[in-house]
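Render this sequence as a predicted structure.
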Amino acid sequence: MISVEEALSRVLALIEILPAEQIALSDGLGRVLAEDVAARRTQPPFAVSAMDGYAVRADDLGRIPVELRIVAEVPAGAGFGGRIDAGETARIFTGAPMPEGTDTVVIQEDTERHGDRVRVLEGAARGRYVRRAGLDFAEGEVLLRAGRRLSARDIGLLAAMNRPWLFVRRQPRIGILSTGDEIVMPGEPIGAHQIVSSNSLALMAIVTACGGIPVSAGNAPDDPEALRRMAAATRGVDLLVTTGGASVGEHDLVRAALAVDGLELDFWQIAMRPGKPLMAGRYRGTPLIGLPGNPVSSFVCAMLFLTPAIERFLGVVAPPAGSDRVRLGAALAANDRRQDYLRARLGRGADGVEEVVAFAPQDSSMMRLLAEADCLIVRPPEAPPARPGEFVPVIRFPRGALPV
């Protein structure tokens, strides 16, 4: 068996970053930038008012109160072609360009208007309520870097940058092939000794959440010819993911059957729990990851290996899994030689500090606990007992599927 770290390194060595494609900004949510993006304009492009009020010359506010003559009205989206001289002012609205000669805005609440004259009751420092040109960003300034997964906030920024088109990484097509006579899809007739399949649907959801395109290859029975035929039908995907093996042993059928068609196996066992029987290699030149058939094992291994593989396809720069550390709220026993991933819940201690507590039991067939978990506690091989108050590495489950 090899370590999780070595296995991940060998999986990622199979993956090459995908080429770029051009898309409309409106289709950019969740996509990954393939290039640095610079602003095509300065924002704001000119000094604008930040409030409704009166554009004035700060020099005219030396003595308060003061009465000024209103010579113009400037709404947002319009301008004033003239100049404001001493003793004059312009009625102005939020977002409107500052007239030439003015440098300050007096808010309307601090004034009294009488016809074409306004009495200023409160002074204002020079530049008050004025957004200077370029306050947000300048034309040519690089604001977003390649490898960034675009959030809703980024879409708004890119729009302000006047970028209607983007170059992003092509979404990887991930083939998903489940195996086993014992499983049926939700809603199908269930035999006396069959179970409902959850792996393929969960994996498709992971692929979608990570920015890939899932391609379902269906469920192959425990028959080598059928397995080879269904696997061959996935030609054209960027990565093939299998889940499950055969009743005689996890992945035995998959390895033996696909070897006939040129499966080049890199490894097939990892020192981890859950998920020891995981394999990786190439099938007809396409990268392949073979996940366990156990539902929790399949999901945890997908988080640890499939998610980083998709990120590598997309050129995403992400922190290593388990780099976050949280205070332990309940004791943990010593670990054995396999790296353990414990489903756990996050909460707050009496002092308000975030704490994590592992579920008991940790049976790898219990999908309910996986759904209720907030994170996985990472227990290194041969880790000694851990007491409450110690800080342990965790892998957090994302709170939502869409980046905002």
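Summary. The chain has four domains: 4-17+171-314, 22-43+141-169, 48-131, 324-396. Residues 8 and 404 are 28 Å apart (CA to CA).
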